[in-house]
Amino acid sequence: MKERHQYLFLDFEFTMPESKRNPRGFFPEIIEVGLVSVLNGEIYDQFSSYVKPIKFPILTERCKSFLNITQEQVDKGISFEELVGWLREYDSLYPSTVITWGNMDMKVLRHNCSQAGLPFPFTGEHRDLAMEYKKFFGEQNQTGLWKAVQEYGNEGVGKHHCALDDAFTTYNIFKLIEKDKKYMAKPKPTTIGDRVDFSKLLSKFAL
């Protein structure tokens, strides 16, 4: 029996400094998680929650405005330790591949784990779908998630910068890209010219 393989479509939202210039010591912390588990091409489970930051627990006005998030929502979220526990639990269900749009999610998760003294929860492969999209379509610059899905003639799921909605949007564009890859990999149908040896045919009529 073929072993099941799980795809985990993952998106985080992070804390932000008040200005684009990071204050000394600041680093982004996860404050929202959205995860979609897919087995055998079907959605198996989903998980979303706000997450309480450890180092910088008070959100900046810029962060609240950009993400349309409130301090109260984050204060009622799970702890970062609980988040890592949830992610480890998903990772342990089946051999898994984590798929994100861009590499920032995994970078911040790894750094947050290091700062909190917690082990990184994932043991399998990670795929950066934004990089795959860039290479597949020969783009010069990395395309944003919602712009990419709109280029396919679709719209993103729900609300941009809502972690679970972005995780579902990542899953949807993954399906579109995989379909295109299979289409491009199919051999072209042979033409009559491929099937007939014209040199033999001409020599026959020359007799």
Automatic annotation (TrEMBL):
<dbReference type="InterPro" id="IPR036397">
    <property type="entry name" value="RNaseH_sf"/>
</dbReference>
<dbReference type="InterPro" id="IPR013520">
    <property type="entry name" value="Ribonucl_H"/>
</dbReference>
<dbReference type="GO" id="GO:0003676">
    <property type="term" value="F:nucleic acid binding"/>
</dbReference>
<protein>
    <submittedName>
        <fullName>Sporulation inhibitor KapD</fullName>
    </submittedName>
</protein>
<dbReference type="InterPro" id="IPR047201">
    <property type="entry name" value="ERI-1_3'hExo-like"/>
</dbReference>
<dbReference type="GO" id="GO:0000175">
    <property type="term" value="F:3'-5'-RNA exonuclease activity"/>
</dbReference>
<dbReference type="InterPro" id="IPR051274">
    <property type="entry name" value="3-5_Exoribonuclease"/>
</dbReference>
<feature type="domain" description="Exonuclease">
    <location>
        <begin position="6"/>
        <end position="183"/>
    </location>
</feature>
<keyword id="KW-0540">Nuclease</keyword>
<keyword id="KW-0269">Exonuclease</keyword>
<keyword id="KW-0378">Hydrolase</keyword>
<dbReference type="Pfam" id="PF00929">
    <property type="entry name" value="RNase_T"/>
</dbReference>
<dbReference type="InterPro" id="IPR012337">
    <property type="entry name" value="RNaseH-like_sf"/>
</dbReference>
